[in-house]
Write a structure and sequence with these properties.
Layout: H1 19-22, H2 26-42, E1 50-51, E2 60-62, H3 64-74, E3 77-86, E4 92-101, E5 107-116, H4 120-123, E6 124-126, E7 129-134, H5 137-142, H6 147-154, E8 159-164, E9 167-172, E10 176-178, H7 186-206, E11 212-213, H8 217-224, H9 232-236, E12 248-250, E13 256-258, H10 267-273, H11 281-290, E14 294-297, E15 303-306, H12 312-320, E16 324-326, E17 331-333
Parallel strand pairs: 2-11
Antiparallel strand pairs: 1-2, 3-4, 4-5, 6-10, 7-9, 8-9, 12-13, 14-15, 15-17, 16-17
Helix pairs in contact: 3-7
């Protein structure tokens, strides 16, 4: 039996959706913009959550802590997709895709970030020269609030703070050479790619690009803090020496400032290690044994040391003791 078409009731078609019908309420948009601006003024701090670069205008640069504050404000969550490209000579490139979700699980936006060990700051290292001057305590206090002033305390552009054994010393940058321990940078590059992707995703999801930018983010952190190191004052905690017992050193402007020994430091040992002249043979062997660094004394009298890749302070000390790196033997030799 066939049905008559006259008896079929047509199903009403859904009204076509338009961009205007799906658009957020104008009042809601204004409230979100006002909230972001209020968070920036009342919660975020310049130099920590955002910054500006001298000579590059007044546009605010959103940093990772600032992006995390916006995530907390709007109760956002994120999901990561990481891919790794293996490159010649053990170099790697990390690519991270960050997707942002609302508290209800709605996808709000996506950001991408990449980082490669072929970038100059990872691919190369500087054969720096230890000036023998300890980093003044004031440097750590100014590093976030006034990076330019902090850099002046080291001697200006071309100088940086590096850890030698248990103390931080001022090094003058030298000739740039290939980084023979490129694997040390893998985790740093992965974190950097994640950070770049996160900042991009937050700017996209919160429509905050008119308030912040990201393009200058890396320049801000690397130009003003070219070799960031942990603050030894914070690391010391209860073991920190009283100010009256800490040595002083002359800053570049010839003013006296407190030197900054690192936690558990032995100042006399650190000073001997950084005085510019190698320690005695017995002192070198004693240091290697005390630090449990694998080493051998060959028949020709040369000392072969094999520090772990992750032990940057030991490698810096070996350089000060005139050890030379042999890439074929994978050993430091003196």
């Amino acid at each position: 039996m066939t049905k008559s078409l006259a008896n079929v009731i047509p199903y009403p078609a859904a009204a076509p959706s338009t961009l205007t019908s799906l658009a957020a309420d104008l009042t809601e948009v204004k409230q979100q913009v006002n909230l972001i601006q209020k968070i920036m003024k009342e919660v975020m701090q310049a130099g920590e959550h955002y910054g500006t670069i001298p000579g590059c205008g007044d546009k605010k640069v959103l940093l990772k802590p600032g992006a995390e504050k916006l995530m907390l404000t709007f109760r956002l969550s994120n999901d990561l997709e990481v891919s790794i490209d293996e490159m010649p000579n053990f170099h790697r490139e990390y690519r991270v895709k960050v997707t942002i979700y609302s508290p209800t699980g709605q996808r709000l936006g996506t950001g991408v970030g990449s980082c490669s060990t072929m970038e100059a700051k990872y691919r190369y290292r500087s054969e720096g020269k230890n000036t023998g001057r300890m980093v003044p305590r004031e440097y750590w206090n100014l590093r976030s609030s006034n990076p330019q002033k902090a850099q002046e305390l080291l001697g200006g552009k071309g100088f940086t703070a590096k850890k030698v054994i248990d103390s931080y010393y001022i090094f003058q940058n030298g000739e740039r050479v290939e980084n023979e321990n490129i694997a040390d940078c893998y985790n740093t590059c992965l974190k950097m790619a994640k950070k770049r992707g996160l900042v991009d995703a937050i700017l996209t999801s919160t429509a905050a690009s008119d308030i912040f930018t990201q393009d200058l983010d890396e320049d801000y952190e690397n130009d003003l803090n070219p070799n960031p190191a942990p603050n030894p004052v914070e690391e010391q905690g209860e073991n920190q020496q009283p100010a009256s017992s800490r040595p002083t050193t002359r800053t570049p402007n010839n003013s006296t400032a407190e030197a900054t020994p690192a936690p558990g430091s032995n100042d006399s040992r650190a000073n001997n290690a950084s005085s510019g002249s190698p320690s005695s043979r017995d002192d070198i062997l004693g240091y290697l044994s005390g630090k449990k660094i694998k080493h051998e004394v060959k028949d020709d009298g040369k000392i072969y040391a094999f520090p772990e890749f992750s032990d940057a302070s030991a490698r810096a000390w070996l350089k000060d003791q005139k050890f030379k790196w042999d890439s074929k033997l994978k050993a430091w030799i003196v």
